[in-house]
Write the structure tokens for this entry.
Amino acid sequence: MSMKKVWKDIDFFQVKLLLKNSDIQLNLKLYTDNEELYELQRGIKIFIEKLGKDDYYWCTGSLEATHFLSLRFYLIDVLGRIAIEVNVNNNLEIPEQIKAQFYLTTEFNQLDYMILELERFIKEEQDEWKGLIL
């Protein structure tokens, strides 16, 4: 998973999000802001603190907006493996339309790293972050 800032405005910015596992690679351009990313960061922190006992859902966009993306983080097993259920719709017309549901796997230490990278991204210390390398 990686995110790169494409352009920014005063209120929001566009990012290119790369989501991939061993079978699929998806690039999605979406509009977001720091508040949404703080919400993602806070939710992942709470998920880690509770050791994955409660699923965490994060959503951006809507089916009526320029994009829809939802991520559900949940614990797979007692070894600490985590799955991320990805649901995405770029809300474009055919043939550019993308509707997909797939899963990523990771571990708690990678989520810790993702939180740090998100913090740097939000503070504009970097325009790109990469995380969840498994």
